[in-house]
Design a protein that fits this description.
The complex is a heterodimer of chains A (113) and B (113). Chain A has 113 residues and is mostly beta strands. In chain A, 0% of the residues lie in helices and 56% in strands. Chain A has strands at 4-7, 10-13, 19-25, 31-37, 43-50, 53-57, 64-70, 73-78, 87-94, 103-104, 108-112. In chain A, strands 2, 4, 5, 6, 9, 10 and 11 form a 7-stranded mixed β-sheet that branches. In chain A, strands 1-3-8-7 form a 4-stranded antiparallel β-sheet, with no helix packed on it. Chain B has strands spanning 4-7, 10-14, 19-25, 32-38, 45-51, 56-59, 62-67, 72-77, 86-92, 102-103, 107-112. The N and C termini of chain B lie far apart (41 Å). The chains are: A mainly beta (113), B mainly beta (113). Chain A binds chain B through residues 4, 31, 40-45, 48, 50, 55-56, 90, 92, 94, 98-107, and chain B through 31-32, 34, 36, 38, 41-46, 49, 87, 89, 93, 97-103, 105-106, 108.
Amino acid sequence: DTAVSQTPKYLVTQMGNDKSIKCEQNLGHDTMYWYKQDSKKFLKIMFSYNNKELIINETVPNRFSPKSPDKAHLNLHINSLELGDSAVYFCASSQVGGPSEQYFGPGTRLTVT
Amino acid sequence: GENVEQHPSTLSVQEGDSAVIKCTYSDSASNYFPWYKQELGKGPQLIIDIRSNVGEKKDQRIAVTLNKTAKHFSLHITETQPEDSAVYFCAASPPSNDYKLSFGAGTTVTVRA
């Protein structure tokens, strides 16, 4: 029944490693997003895909690469992890056709040591 | 781009009292203003939204008001209950093809029993 799911929920890794976070939505939405929430709770959009096409690409280091194999999945791959990448990463999805409710996943807490 | 400011950053209220959170936005073309509630360890969840052709919207104990001239909008929670304790985010979205939301910094609301 989960609308937007993310795996893993927790991710602890060392600096320099490469890691991926997976996101899936079963709502039939066309648009998916990745957000970063820092330690002060600030939510910042990173990327957005509409029907597998990249439509938002904020000022994010190119170590971050999103991939959308189909419109129900949006994965986030991070190369050469740095301490500053530690945060909670949220995936979200919404209907196409105008600004509307975004449904957020439970988040992935990434800790880089 | 759109810049959203949110006040206060923390708010403590006695159970049964009202809580008010205020946000201002910078882009006069913004036309969609959602409010999200984030409980501990979970992703944000939409609680109410308003579009620029409406001045006020209510849903049970929650109401949102919008003043387009002054470019500010507010969330009002009446008869607060302990389960209202959470972080609340306002957001704004200008008309565009990417449905991008710009979030405020969040307000941590604590309802004292």
